[in-house]
Amino acid sequence: MSAYSPSANVPFPCISGQLSYLELFPSGEVPQTFFTYRWWEDEATTVFWAFDPHEIKRVIRFGLFRDNNLPRKSLQKRDPQAITAFLYSLMEPHEAAFIDNLSHYQKVEEIIRRCQISGPPLEPWSWIPTKRDSGLPSIAVAEAIDTESHLHFTRVSFEELVRYFLGYRAHSVEWFLQQHTSLYIHLLNYLQMFPEEIGKYKEVEQHLQTRSPFAYRAVNRCLHSLRQPVPASTPYPGFQFIAAPIQQLFKEHLPSLKAILLELSVLGVRFTRTYVHAREMNWTRPFSVEIPLLDELDLTNPAPALDFAKTTTALDEQCFSGLSQKSFVEPDAIIKRLLVLWELRSLEVWECCTGLPDMIGYLQEIVEALYTCRNYHSFTAILSGLYKYSTSNPTFTHMDSATGQMTLTPVLPPALATLLDPSENFVAYRQEFQSSPGLPFLFPHIREYQQHGPPALHQLFQQLQRQVPTN
């Protein structure tokens, strides 16, 4: 199976006198894969008759079906009261009066409008070679082209990319490829006009080999069209770095559209952080689709919060079992791994809250259960992620226009939330740990060792041994 690929071209004469072009991206730049059965399409049809508004919203958002009218046709057949309730769940309280004046058909249209993603406007390719810039070094030209390519990539929504990688048409992706065809045409015309610049663009082509594969393909094919002795462009599809991991998700997952859409909702947040908000684009590193927290939570069949906390604590105890005082003196693999896992878990929680805000309540229950288990390691990691989310989300922030101060709504009862207050090296946490030891939150203890030396470690390990055997 190959995704739809827009035409891109190499010039050759045409009877009409107009220039025509051969395809520049014949494969659509997507790894060839094949699904014998698009199981997710059947499940999408079923979801539209369910009563979970979050699930319906995700199905509309990603649009993994061939008939674009499927949501409309399905929802129009639903009971009017169910449609009204669904629309209410998508609106702010002050918008409620707006619903009363809508017909059933209009409510369905409003639901679809609110569930679909509207990406940033698509822009035409704007980097154009000029003689005025001929004095720029080739590396600067390559960087400018790569920056432009990255800019156009940020105009493509994650949802559209997922659709495209599964073989559906996606206008913004097609537009993205077409703009690199524009680069090819601009450059071809320029080098035909100023052939003395060809040598420089051979160097540009070399610099682009480690940058945007789409820009590289355009420049490489341009030089080939001018019969320059440059190597053939790489056979790897340009979208390999992100398409292959996404396609693999659909191959590895048991047929469960609900589960995969939960994962994709979180990956959409990661996509934005990794590519849209990045100053530079890494076009080769595979996009990470691993979300251990979601796997552990299993939101399709979530365990009680206390059960999850006990399981997590048992696993954490194994990780702490090899910790020794030497780990603090000369940081070894054990303590480094614990610190990295803490930060990754905190970031995962932020991603999950951003992509799936309806799971925040469950995470809050888990945090309280972890506190009950005296697992300060995972307790603070998840609480840290909740704080990251609440700090930038308007649901949890309030700006006082009179004082100019922003206050945060606590994500947990204040008695627990203060344990992550970094004041005086987390003094509230350290006092709590003194009276009720457990699996430690390592960062304050590392700082204590740096400030007070070995006595701080002796005290920590005396308390830690009550919880888990250590070396």
Automatic annotation (TrEMBL):
<dbReference type="InterPro" id="IPR001895">
    <property type="entry name" value="RASGEF_cat_dom"/>
</dbReference>
<dbReference type="GO" id="GO:0005085">
    <property type="term" value="F:guanyl-nucleotide exchange factor activity"/>
</dbReference>
<protein>
    <recommendedName>
        <fullName>Ras-GEF domain-containing protein</fullName>
    </recommendedName>
</protein>
<dbReference type="InterPro" id="IPR036964">
    <property type="entry name" value="RASGEF_cat_dom_sf"/>
</dbReference>
<dbReference type="InterPro" id="IPR023578">
    <property type="entry name" value="Ras_GEF_dom_sf"/>
</dbReference>
<dbReference type="GO" id="GO:0007264">
    <property type="term" value="P:small GTPase-mediated signal transduction"/>
</dbReference>
<feature type="domain" description="Ras-GEF">
    <location>
        <begin position="359"/>
        <end position="445"/>
    </location>
</feature>
<dbReference type="Pfam" id="PF00617">
    <property type="entry name" value="RasGEF"/>
</dbReference>
